[in-house]
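Predict the holo structure. Ligand: glutamine.
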Amino acid sequence: APYVGVLALQGDVREHVAALTALGAAAGPVRRPAELDRCDGLVLPGGESTTIGRLARHFDLLAPLRAYVAADRPVLGTCAGMVLLADRVLDGTPAQQDGSETVGGLDVTVRRNAFGRQVDSFETPIRLRGAEVPVPGVFIRAPWVESVGPGVEVLGRVEGSPAQGDAAGRIVAVRQGAVLATSFHPEIGAGGGSVVHRLLLDVIDEAASAARGS
Ligand code: GLN
């Protein structure tokens, strides 16, 4: 089974480990640069992106995390994790806006706390590209993706009419190569067998096949 690391500085670490092990993967926390090497894939969890970014810098994890993403290794960032992966952050702290406390590598512009300006948290089904049934999208002071670069595939949006306001139609799930990111928390409310975690495991499989040259 692949081994998936979950960055364990702050946030929803145990929930991601549980979701991954429920799918038959091995998973555990990552706190040091050396622990990254053995990971076939990595999750940057939800939590507080400013705290995670500050701690990552403090523990000299930013450069290894950037190298991990740059090497096209499989990564899933959720909520705060999406903010950390984004190349451009609107409404972030100065250190997020200049990239000194983010990982980057995902060619998107995110708006931090975007949904939170209207309603702090909510749940709505999200139809993900390629998935047969909608996934429960749990949003907690979540960012949305304001715009994507040319290499980024949009996997999901908030549905609904413009009458629902600013949130309708917003991009909330993306993929760029081996990097996946969601605005919502797939580790919460998934009821077992999370589609998003399954997708990460599929990306890990693809990466392993590519490395074997098949
Ligand atoms: N608002 C948080 C941030 O900007 C993200 C919230 C979350 O991960 N649930 O980091």
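The chain is about 30% helix and 30% strand. The chain has a mean pLDDT of 93.
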